[in-house]
Design brief:
Nucleotidyltransferase, domain 5
Length: 103
């Protein structure tokens, strides 16, 4: 199962995503760019288990300012997905955020 199989149900045919190293953009046909946020995810790590704490702007604020049990990372490096699991969580979060705004 690929990262995109898990996300397929969240997409619509009129949505485009630009996964950038610094920022992620989501475009919706007829509305333009509806989301522009940093490509950053913050995790709390306990007993080897990662739990997402923040994504985007909130996670960016944590970069370099987190205690040892919290890690803020960028899943994209040089325009390529470097951490698939983290990128998947980030994409799901952003798509849900866009869908919540449109309902």
């Amino acid at each position: 199962m690929s990262i995109f199989d898990n996300l397929r149900g969240l997409f619509s045919s009129d949505m485009a995503i630009d996964l950038g190293t610094a920022n992620t953009l989501i475009y919706v046909k007829g509305k333009g760019v509806v989301l522009s946020e940093p490509s950053v995810v913050a995790y709390h790590i306990k007993d080897g288990v990662k739990k997402v704490l923040a994504v985007g702007e909130d996670a960016k604020l944590m970069l370099g300012r987190t205690p040892g049990s919290i890690e803020a990372i960028r899943p994209m490096r040089e325009g390529v997905i470097a951490d698939f699991d983290t990128a998947e969580e980030m994409i799901k979060h952003f798509i849900r955020k866009v869908h919540k705004r449109s309902t």
